[in-house]
Design a protein that fits this description.
416 residues, 34% strand, 26% helix, alpha+beta, single chain
Length: 416
């Protein structure tokens, strides 16, 4: 075979290879286009299924056995299969929360007599043995003993009580290392998230009740007419004996201290309140350091503005705090704040209208008692604050108003 024929054969082979390659690429490209088209069609169909039946419909279409879908607080979605599990995911979550917190919850007994009984609960917050509870749980603070989860009892010493928040701190003696402080939650609470209470209602030790956070930033008045601000509202069952115990989230972290219930019978009616964790820790820190809490207060008789008062005074706003009277020669009086002069009946109280209406303190808006108490509570006595008031149609800034110390007595200088 001559060289010319060989060249022709090589050229033909090359052309054949090129043609086969091109055809293969065309087939591959066509196949990919068809595959992508099918995927797009499948995606559209699945989207229709998901929009009608959600994740359960999709998994059912795929033949995946499913009992339920569980959404955690962290945004994680868990799928429970149809296997023979003993507990649901929610039950397991509740059990984990209880196991995590149980050893940090304590029962408090006010005295050591044979007839003594559990007065409430508390929460261990430090490895040194400090625990928080309610002031009404420790009573006089004499002869306190504490029951631990393992059945042992230890003595405890009262460190201090803050009567304004009903928070008390005690110190346990000879605490075992296994009784670790309860983990604290530092995130944002939301209405609807799970709320778990652990306590000893009616002496039934380490009982657990489950509900939700049903309200936030509530203003609650105690039986002694002291206002508690920023309270967490929950429908978790809380009864006598739960006081001073923790309110937890679904991970077993403390979010509040169970303190009060709204009841016409003295028992749970689905409306209970817990002090927020931030308040509990702030007060506990002060009590441990100095045995007391120093808060600033205005020496005025205050009335929360509402639509009825605003309408009577012909105001075009109904938020703020009205000054009914000022304490003569007090910090508010010396700074130039003015009380009212028109005496009127307001519920069961007598108030005076026409005084200054506080709308801001140190640049923070004051819409009512909650803002008023919170802003003043962030200051100490003898601090100076600037107060913006509405007076006779004008807005004035009263500077350097000296605060007094908030006490149980002057905390009642607000009219309900």
């Amino acid at each position: 075979m001559n060289r010319k024929n060989i060249s022709r054969i090589v050229l033909v082979c090359a052309l054949l290879i090129a043609i086969v390659t091109i055809l293969s690429l065309l087939l591959f490209w066509t196949s990919k286009l068809n595959e992508e088209k099918k995927i797009d069609e499948l995606r559209r169909e699945l989207s229709k299924v998901a929009s009608k039946g959600g994740e359960e419909a999709l998994l059912s279409l795929a033949g995946v056995p499913l009992k339920g879908i569980f959404y955690t607080e962290d945004g994680v979605v868990l799928f429970e299969d149809d296997s023979s599990w003993s507990y649901s995911l929610e039950e397991k979550e509740n059990m984990r929360a209880f196991d995590k917190a149980k050893a940090s919850v304590i029962e408090i007994v006010q005295d050591k007599s044979l007839s003594s009984s559990i007065s409430g609960c508390g929460v261990i917050i430090s490895s040194e043995g400090y625990a928080v509870t309610n002031g009404h749980v420790v009573g006089s603070g004499k002869d306190i003993s504490v029951n631990l989860y393992d059945g042992t009892s230890v003595d405890a010493t009262l460190i201090g009580v803050d009567s304004l928040t009903d928070i008390a701190v005690i110190k346990l003696e000879k605490i075992d290392r296994k009784y670790v402080p309860l983990e604290m939650y530092s995130g944002q609470l939301n209405i609807g998230q799970k709320a778990i209470a652990i306590g000893s209602p009616y002496g039934y030790s380490w009982s657990m009740s489950v509900g939700v956070v049903s309200g936030l930033s509530r203003l609650v008045y105690t039986s002694s007419m002291l206002p508690l601000t920023n309270m967490i509202q929950t429908d978790a069952a809380i009864n006598p004996g739960n006081s001073g115990g923790p309110l937890l989230n679904s991970r077993g972290e403390m979010i509040g201290l169970n303190t009060a219930i709204y009841s016409t019978s003295g028992e749970n009616q689905g409306l209970s309140f817990a002090l927020p964790l931030e308040t509990v820790l702030d007060v506990a820190t002060s009590l441990i350091k100095s045995g007391s809490v120093n808060r600033g207060w205005l020496d005025v008789l205050a009335v929360e503005l509402n639509s009825q008062i605003a309408e009577y005074l012909k105001l075009d706003f109904d938020q703020g705090v009205l000054i009914s009277q000022v304490v003569p020669s007090g910090g508010a009086d010396r700074a130039g704040l003015k009380g009212g002069s028109e005496k009127v009946q307001y519920g069961q109280s007598i108030i005076y209208l026409g005084g200054d209406i506080i709308t801001e303190i140190d640049g923070k808006s004051i819409t009512g008692y909650s803002d008023y108490i919170a802003v003043l509570g962030s200051h100490k006595s003898e601090d100076k604050v600037d107060i913006k008031v509405y007076r006779n149609g004008n807005t004035l800034l009263i500077k350097d108003v000296v605060l007094t110390m908030r006490s149980e007595e002057n905390s009642r200088w607000i009219i309900r």
